[in-house]
Amino acid sequence: MDVDITRSRVGGRARAPPSKSYTHRAILAAGYSDGAVVSDPLVSADTRATMRSVEAFGGQVDRAEDDRRLDIDGFGGTPSVPADVIDCANSGTTTRIVTACAALADGLTVLTGDASLRSRPQGPLLDAIRQLGGRAESTRANGQAPLVVGGPIDGGTVSIPGDVSSQYITALLMAGAVTVDGVEIVLETELKSAPYVDITLEVLADFGINAEETEAGYRVPGGQRYERPDPYAVPGDFSSMSYLLAAGAVAGGDEGVVVEGARPSAQGDSAIVDVLEQMGADISWDREAGEITVRESALSGVEVDVGDTPDLLPTIAVLGAVADGETRIVNCEHVRYKETDRVRAMATELETLGASVTETQDTLTIHGGESTLTGASVAGHDDHRIVMSLAIAGLVAEGTTTVEGADHVDVSFPGFFDVLYDLGAELEEHER
């Protein structure tokens, strides 16, 4: 599906979907338990992959008709060997957290996914599992899926780089809690995307699991049980909110956009509020009510380090193209290893729309003062975050912008274009 977006003013109230990061972790945590309820989950292509994985390991996931509740019968910390290959589709988070879970099973698990996922790095996690005494191989011997993983592991100490993916740390902490000896993680390099590990620690604590940060990295004692007697409520997703907040800042007029469900949590992507404030946006956050209001503003370029907030790069890049002056996004090499190379994708598509962009391996600079956005056909790169950020650019580009492959928003924000339409955006969906 493609979407045509014509320059528009937007305004009103909207609610971002529940957090994808919290939903993934809560589903698997419930799977590790004897059983738990997850309320207000994000049901999307990615999180359905995690649900399928829990079922492959012997659990059962029952979805309410309105998708507001998941009743999960877990596998009690002892996953069964799946009867078939686990298809993680396009979900890198699923692949990594499930890979460590597979190392607990007394047998071999095969994991794969689509072409994009099969190009993403898994080598450091496979090496960590081998350090713990498990079997972990890439079928093509290139550190990428398809993967073959076997156990059971008993725990131990692992040494792993921190600058490739924080999801490796999440995977080892979640699995380590139910090993005999627990897992000690020693970081070889500085941890990137650290707030995502903070989310993991928060969810683990909510399921009764003790894990902690240490001077060398992280530690989780073994022999623990995942338990959650009350329903676990998933908070709103700040990664998804970023597009709505950006829409308000660049096209919100005097009325502005009010985003609901913005309650404080460990999500690093809440930094989008600080970024917008630094750029001069008229923005306010009522934390108690969980509402953020942002109005159209004259923005100025800033420098933003996305070492801990890689998913914000596409949003910030679009804001930079609209802002006056130069916006430098630094410490972003790891953003190249997402669903697509998001640094290159944003540079390419913003240039197609008329932006002036300079790209290096670790930086993306948008020269806002030299940029005039004009409608064009841009590629979504089969990446939900690229699609949504380019849609926001379409709100301010002269004429009409066509975003190709727009249906990929289903990965994290099903109904994104419905929300944008309800806010007043002029858009039309059509099949390719």
Automatic annotation (TrEMBL):
UniProt-listed PROSITE patterns: EPSP_SYNTHASE_1 (PS00104), EPSP_SYNTHASE_2 (PS00885)
Major location category of this protein: cytoplasm
UniProt cross-references to Gene3D superfamilies, sorted A to Z: Enolpyruvate transferase domain (3.65.10.10)
Protein keywords: Amino-acid biosynthesis, Aromatic amino acid biosynthesis, Cytoplasm, Transferase
EC number per UniProt: 2.5.1.19
Binding of 3-phosphoshikimate, residues: K20, S21, R25, S165, S166, Q167, S193, D311, K338
Pathway connected to this protein: Metabolic intermediate biosynthesis; chorismate biosynthesis; chorismate from D-erythrose 4-phosphate and phosphoenolpyruvate: step 6/7
Keyword Metal-binding: no
Localization in the cell: Cytoplasm
Family that this chain belongs to: Belongs to the EPSP synthase family.
Function: Catalyzes the transfer of the enolpyruvyl moiety of phosphoenolpyruvate (PEP) to the 5-hydroxyl of shikimate-3-phosphate (S3P) to produce enolpyruvyl shikimate-3-phosphate and inorganic phosphate.
Name of the protein in question: 3-phosphoshikimate 1-carboxyvinyltransferase
UniProt organism field: Haloplanus vescus
Taxonomic classification: Archaea, Methanobacteriati, Methanobacteriota, Stenosarchaea group, Halobacteria
